[in-house]
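Incident log, structure service

09:12 report received: a user says their structure output differs between two submissions of the same chain.
09:20 pulled the input from the user's history:
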Amino acid sequence: MAEQKDKGFNALGRSLSSTEPALALEIGGGCRAMVEVRVLVINTGGTIGMVPQSEGLAPEANKLAAALRKIPILHDAVYAKETDLYCRSGLRDDTLVLPLSEQNKRIIYTILELSPLLDSSNMTPAEWDDIAKHLQANYEKYDGFVILHGTDTMAYTASALSFMCENLGKTIVLTGSQVPIYELRNDGRSNLLGALLFAGQFVIPEVCLYFYNKLYRGNRVTKVDTESFNAFSSPNLPPLANAEVDITINWETVWRASTTRKFEIHTNMNSNVGLLRIFPGITAAAVKAFLQSPMEGVVLETYGSGNAPNNRPDLLDELKKATDRNVVILNCTQCLRGTVSLVYATGKTLMDAGVIPGADMTPEAALAKLSYVLSKPGLTLAEKRQMLNENLRGEMTVVPIRTQITLKDSKFIQEIARYLFISCKEELAAIRDALTPPLACVAAKNGDLEALKALQNMGGNLSCGDYDGRTPLHVACCEGNLEVVRHLLESGATVYAKDRLGATPLMNAIKFRHNDVISLLRTTGAHLSSQELLNVGTELCSLAFNGDVDGLSAWQMAGVNLKQPGYDGNTPFHVAKAAGHARVVQYLKTFAA
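09:34 re-ran on a clean worker, output below:
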C-alpha cells in the first residue's frame, strides 16, 4: 500500500505527523520540546498578491508580508513579540511565523520578493534562472522553499525548475491562487498555508506544486481550469499527497535523487525550442517554416497515442529533413491522459523519421526537458537523444525492467499476516510500512546490506524514521558503516532528516568521529543547520581543553569554522594554549589567523 495517513494540518493549521522524518529541530526542554523549521518564500508575483488597478489586476510590491502579518492563521504575532522574532540573529523584518501546532511545531518563514513582480504570462527562462539562483544561494539556510507564482505558466516553471535543480534533497513547493489573497473570499490563504506546511514538515525532495488541497509532482501538472479553485490536474500520476482532514502521502511515488552528489542548479536553458501542434490539413510549408534555424528542438503534439498522418509524404519529408540536420523532435500526445505508443502504423512512421517518443509527458514537461537536455554542455547529439528517453525527474512513466519482490514473496511478512489473520494486499502493505523503519535501522546498525535491499525490493521506504525519528542513515552514520551509508544515499535517503532531538546524520557521524562517513555526507551536500551550530563554539573549546584533536578534526571536516569562540569569548586555540596542549595548538594554528 503506497499511501500513508498523517493526522495533520487541515486548512486551520492542525498539527501533523509522519513516519517520514520532518525537517524540524528541537530547541527546548521537557517531554514536548519546541520545534522550529525555516522556510524561504520566494514571491515572483501572480494573482495571489495582485490588487485592482486602472488597467486590471496587477502585482503590487512590498505589500504581501505586511498583509500576511494581519492574518492569524499565517502569522502568530504574540509568539513573534514574545520571542523577539525580528531581532534574532539572521532573521529579517519580512519574517513571519505560523501558529503553534498540536505537536509543538512552528514554521518560521521569510518572504523574499523578486523585482519586478510579474504576472506569470510575462515569465521567461531568464526568470527561471533568477529563481534557481536564489534557491542555490539560500539552500543551506532553509529547510524548505515555497515559490509564489501565477497560475497561467506555473506548470512550465515547475517543470523547468524540476530539471534545473539537480541532486535536489529538500522540498520546493510552487503555489499561487485564482483569487488575490487580499479578497474576502479567496484560495490564496489555504494554498499558501498548505505549501508552507509541506515545505516545512516533510522531506519530499522534489519540485512540487500545491493547489486546492493536493500536492503534485511539478513536472506532471497542467492547468485545466480558469474559473475553478481546482485549477490543476496531474493526468498521468496521482497526487503525491492529499491534504483533507488527514494528510495522506504516497511515499512510494516520491522521486528521490539516487546520488552522492551535492545540490546544484543548471541555468541558461536552451531557448531555441518550441511546441508544434499537428492538426488536420496542416501544410508542409508551415511545418518547414517552423523547423528552420535557429530551431534546435521541437515538441510535436500529435493525435491519440502519438499518431500523425502517414499518407502525407510531404509532411513526413520535412520532419525527416529536420532530424537529419540535428533538430531534435519529441513526440507527445495532444490527449490529456495516456502515452505515446507504437500501436498504430501512423505512430511508427514518425519514429522512422527520427522522432523520439515522449511517453506520457505533459507538453510543459516535454518542452522543459528538451530545453534542459539541449543546453547540457559536452554531450553528443546521440547522448542528448538518449537522455530524452530516460526518466530524469519522474516526468514520465517507465515500466521497470526488473520484477519487484511482492509482499507475498516474503515468508516473514506471511507469518505475521497469518498470525494476524490478514490476507488483502492493503493490510500486508500496512504491516510492511510498520515494520520497515525498525527493521531497516537494525540492518543499518549491523551493516546488513542484503536485508536493506530485501526491504527495499518489497517497497519499503528506507527514508522513514523509527519511533524516535531516526532513519537508517542516522544509524549507519553512528556505526560508521560506510558502505551502508553509500547504499542508502544512492537509494535516495535524505541527508537532511532530523530525529526527535534534531540531530542530522552528519551530527551523528561527527559525534562518533567517523571521518570517512563525514566526507561522503559532505560530498552529498550535508550541512549542519543554524540551530545545530548555536553552541558549537563552546563544544570546540571543550574539545580543545581536553586535547581532543580527533574531535576537532571531525568538526572541521563537517565544514565548521574552528575559530568560533565559546561562551566566554575565548577561541579553541586560546583554550588549548592555556591548557598546554601543544598538539592541539599546532593543529589549530592553521585556523588561528
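09:41 both user submissions now match this output. Likely a transient worker issue. Closing.
09:42 reviewer note: The chain has four domains: 3-255, 273-389, 407-524, 536-592. Confidence is low (pLDDT under 50) at residues 7-32, 401-409.
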